[in-house]
């Protein structure tokens, strides 16, 4: 291809799509350029910053004419913050784009008919939904800054009122920032190994109780007693405060060491009529309202019978296992993280559910062991991380030959890849339901019904 675009060129064009990181897509003489920002329909000015053989990268300089889909954001840092690139996008158009994105992945990657994708289920109120956040701490213009990273960088968008997290979380962050200024505590510098605080984690439950996690770069947290006093005096709903120690240089927020400074060991939250005891680093869906809808759809797709033996792979702290258990004969939850299995067993006891068994180990190892014990599975649910299922896990599932599989995914691309593998065996993908678990972001949750042909 004869590329007429050069690094440094300042060009104009219309945004025709949104890329998988939330930025705009423009064309110059049929050459695709991915921008850091922009909505479909925006007429924009941009600078070309990188040119490859088949595409370019551009930085948005100005919106010459805003799209009809663009709305004013209610977030004061949305111009900078990379956490919610869709804050300017009409919510109905957010949902439409997410639905089309999944359909494209299902067709192009999964080689499946997009008509099996059902309309996305959105939220009535797409704000204040996030019950778990980890917020970076650093410097900006010489001042302490606490907020999510700017799009495409490690610069912090200094926020005062994040509209996707709870109001108590915003107030706790303000209080910690003021505390750091008053006691001259510095953000942690990874390069020089100086300073103290590098992230703030906050979990909240349905009753607006909060667990606070202060992530430090070393064991030293000066004035910790004063911090506990200030937080607990200002917020009667703080039930737990932890220090987490993370001296690593990588992107992982939490280190292995959690030290309880105050209050309860865990926070308890609910989905439906079930209670779940949650450790500081346990996985729990961030959107409580949509999770109830998601798990109801899982139960519907599983078509549970009282004689069913169920395997729940990547079961985490047992949320889906316990949600299904009352309608099944027995549920086996499998999870490789030992701490999560301990929480799962505690949650079974908390809810007086006895027909579940939680096993620590990898799915590809545990499934054959269960088969050797004579345990025949009827149905399997999988809820893997964003990277999807390992091929060995999928092959083991196929070998186990359940009559039905329900696949829960937060990454449509890896989901489509895995569905292609399953559909090339004896299984047929019947239906995919989408849910907007993450309004304002580019992400979508999918739940899939798969049946043995």
Automatic annotation (TrEMBL):
Record-given protein name: 23S rRNA (Uracil1939-C5)-methyltransferase
Bilayer-crossing regions: none
Superkingdom, natural source: Bacteria
Residues annotated as binding S-adenosyl-L-methionine: 285, 314, 335, 383
Family: Belongs to the class I-like SAM-binding methyltransferase superfamily. RNA M5U methyltransferase family.
Keyword Transferase on entry: yes
Domain TRAM per the UniProt entry, residue ranges: 4-62
SUPFAM superfamilies xref list: Nucleic acid-binding proteins (SSF50249), S-adenosyl-L-methionine-dependent methyltransferases (SSF53335)
Cross-referenced PROSITE patterns: SAM_MT_RNA_M5U, TRAM, TRMA_1
Keyword Acetylation: no
InterPro entries xrefs: MeTrfase_TrmA_AS, NA-bd_OB-fold, SAM-dependent_MTases_sf, TRAM_dom, U5_MeTrfase_fam
A GO biological-process term: rRNA base methylation
Alphabetized Pfam families for the sequence: tRNA_U5-meth_tr
Record: active site: 410 (nucleophile), 410
GO molecular function, one term: rRNA (uridine-C5-)-methyltransferase activity
Keywords: Methyltransferase, S-adenosyl-L-methionine, Transferase
């Amino acid at each position: 291809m004869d590329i007429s675009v050069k690094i440094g060129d300042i060009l104009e064009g219309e945004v025709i799509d949104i890329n998988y990181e939330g930025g705009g897509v423009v064309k110059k003489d049929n050459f695709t350029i991915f921008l850091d920002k922009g909505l479909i329909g925006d007429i924009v000015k941009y600078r070309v910053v990188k040119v490859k053989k088949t595409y370019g990268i551009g930085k948005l300089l100005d919106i010459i004419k805003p799209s009809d889909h663009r709305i004013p954001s209610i977030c004061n840092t949305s111009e900078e913050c990379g956490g919610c690139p869709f804050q300017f996008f009409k919510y109905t158009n957010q949902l439409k784009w997410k639905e089309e994105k999944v359909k494209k992945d299902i067709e192009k990657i999964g080689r499946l008919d997009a008509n099996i994708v059902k309309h996305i289920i959105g939220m009535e109120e797409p704000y204040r939904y996030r019950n778990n956040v980890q917020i970076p701490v650093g410097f900006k213009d010489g001042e302490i800054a606490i907020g999510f990273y700017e799009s495409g960088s490690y610069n912090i968008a200094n926020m005062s009122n994040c509209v996707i997290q709870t109001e108590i979380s915003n107030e706790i962050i303000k209080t910690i920032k003021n505390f750091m200024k008053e006691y001259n505590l510095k953000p942690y510098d990874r390069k020089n190994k100086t300073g103290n605080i590098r992230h703030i984690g906050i979990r909240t439950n349905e009753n607006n109780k909060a667990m606070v996690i202060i992530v430090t770069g070393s064991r030293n947290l000066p004035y910790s007693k004063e911090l506990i006093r200030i937080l607990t005096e200002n917020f009667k709903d703080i039930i737990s405060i932890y220090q987490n120690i993370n001296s690593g240089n990588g992107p992982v927020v939490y280190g292995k060491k959690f030290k309880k400074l105050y209050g309860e060991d865990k926070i308890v939250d609910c989905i439906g009529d079930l209670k779940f005891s949650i450790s500081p680093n346990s996985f729990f869906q961030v959107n409580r309202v949509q999770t109830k809808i998601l798990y109801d759809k899982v139960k519907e797709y599983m078509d549970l019978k009282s004689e069913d033996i169920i395997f729940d792979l990547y079961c985490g702290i047992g949320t889906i296992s316990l949600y299904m258990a009352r309608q099944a004969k027995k549920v086996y939850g499998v999870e490789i993280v030992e701490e999560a299995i301990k929480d799962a067993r505690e949650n079974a006891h908390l809810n007086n559910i006895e027909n579940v068994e939680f096993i620590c180990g990898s799915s590809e190892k545990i499934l054959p062991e269960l088969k050797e014990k004579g345990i025949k599975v009827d149905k399997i649910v999988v809820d893997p991380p964003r990277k999807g299922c390992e091929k060995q896990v999928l092959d083991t599932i196929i070998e186990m030959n359940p009559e039905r599989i329900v696949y829960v995914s937060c990454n449509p691309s890896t989901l489509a890849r895995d569905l292609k593998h399953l559909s090339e065996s004896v299984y047929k993908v019947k239906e995919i339901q989408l849910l907007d678990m993450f309004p304002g972001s580019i992400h979508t949750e999918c739940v899939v019904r798969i049946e043995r042909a």
